[in-house]
Write a structure and sequence with these properties.
With 276 residues, the chain is α/β, with parallel strands linked by helices. The protein has ten helices and seven strands. The strands form two sheets. Strands 1-2-3-7-6 form a five-stranded parallel sheet, with helices on both faces. A hairpin with a 2-residue loop joins β4 and β5. The longest helix is centred in the first third of the chain and has 22 residues, at 3-24.
Length: 276
């Protein structure tokens, strides 16, 4: 896999997300940016099996972004896969448009929604269990936040997946150490997440969530886990790519002012603000 190509795709995705959100001044840039490399690795790194123009292909792998406030990170990718008209990106959050701030099943390519956090691993476990029951070989990938791991439903689903040997299920924890109220270590320390997932019967590994080499190496473990589902703890930076947003909880859903906008445009390699 050409890592330079994936890095170019990551910059493209950050640019597309920026333009989409800034046109309407609505959305969650930092939460989307922390998982950009994860999303690019899945969709463009030769990992997920998908068919261009066929969001409903029966043998497709399922990808769920469980941290629903980061739904915007998927939209440019789904449009790029010809799942819907790219012009919908300019109608993001607008009346009559397809794309809401939070994802919806009416959007081609969206497998699960999560306005309320904590449901993605349960939905993913259902998909994975159904695949096993029906002797189908598709896999399910769930991207969830570390703050989301406060939800008890995550761990109930983790027990279910391990009990049923769902080695066709992968949970990727976007561990940016922040949630809307502040730093997870100060709010409720999550401790050793890798150890926690292992204690629930999963194969678990910790990686740099902005390194394509480490992400792809971890994802290559699919099918080699002796019947265990796979948890990847991806250490990331919230707001990655925008210096004044990186690691700052107050930027969870703020929109930059004019001067900050100029800084961000320069760091993203964009010449002008997004046109409405």
């Amino acid at each position: 896999m050409n890592i330079n190509h994936l890095e170019d795709k990551a910059l493209w995705l950050r640019q597309e997300c920026w333009n989409m959100v800034m046109r309407q001044r609505k959305g969650h840039i930092p939460s989307s940016y922390s998982c950009v490399e994860i999303i690019v690795a899945l969709y463009y790194g030769g990992v997920a099996r998908l068919t261009r123009g066929r969001p409903d292909a029966p043998n497709r792998d399922r990808i769920i972004v469980s941290k629903g406030h980061a739904a915007a990170v998927q939209y440019p990718v789904l449009a790029d896969l010809d799942y819907f008209d790219k012009r919908e990106l300019k109608r993001y959050t607008q009346p009559g448009g397809l794309l809401g701030m939070y994802a919806d099943y009416k959007i081609p390519g969206i497998e699960g929604i999560s306005g309320s956090l904590g449901h993605g691993v349960g939905m993913g476990s259902g998909f994975a269990f159904a695949a096993k029951q029906n002797n189908e070989d598709y896999r399910t990938f769930v991207v969830l936040g570390d703050g989301e791991c406060y939800e008890g439903s995550i761990w109930e689903s983790a027990m279910f997946a391990a009990h049923h040997n769902l080695d066709n299920l992968v949970a990727i924890v976007d561990r940016n150490d922040l949630c809307i109220l502040g730093r997870t270590k100060e709010l409720l320390d999550l401790g050793d997440l890798e150890g926690k997932w292992q204690s629930f019967g999963w194969k678990a590994i910790t990686v740099n969530g902005h390194s394509f080499e480490e992400l792809l190496d971890a994802l290559s473990l699919i099918g080699t886990t002796s019947g265990k589902p796979l948890a990847i703890i991806a250490n990331t930076v919230k707001g990655k790519g925008i210096s004044f947003m990186e690691g700052r909880p107050e930027w969870h859903n703020r929109i930059p002012d004019e001067e900050q906008m100029k800084v961000a445009l320069g760091e993203l390699g964009l010449k002008t603000m997004a046109e409405t």
